[in-house]
Amino acid sequence: MAQLDWSINIVSAGSLAAFEPNLAPAVPPGTPLNAQSTDIVSWANRTSETHQPWPTQGNVQDGPPVVVPPGERPSPFFCDPIPPDSSSQPQYVVTGATNTTIYYCCLFHPQERGAINITTF
Questions:
Q1: Which segments of the chain have a pLDDT < 70?
Q2: Measuring CA to CA, which of 26, 56, 70, 108 is 20 to 30 A from 115?
Q3: What residues form DSSP beta bridges with 17?
């Protein structure tokens, strides 16, 4: 199984931020990242605010952020908060079945949405 490294930029998009896969050729902000199971994903915060990719309740596109007790991590756990001009820690290893989508939002700005499509190349 291939294990590729992917980066998603968090970029300013008007009054909000957007998740933009770092691909060549470039894709518009909001485009889902296509990745395989076991690939590694990191986020690069290119904005002036702290962001944290966070799973949505029910793994649905417009779901609110998953609620967990203080000090616990959701499943999946993507990364810790990402300060401005920083990269995510730890990196996220994609898990899940092929032909499914993982939906996420920013924990601090839930209207900012992204997705990872699990696929094969």
A1: 1-2
A2: 70
A3: 12
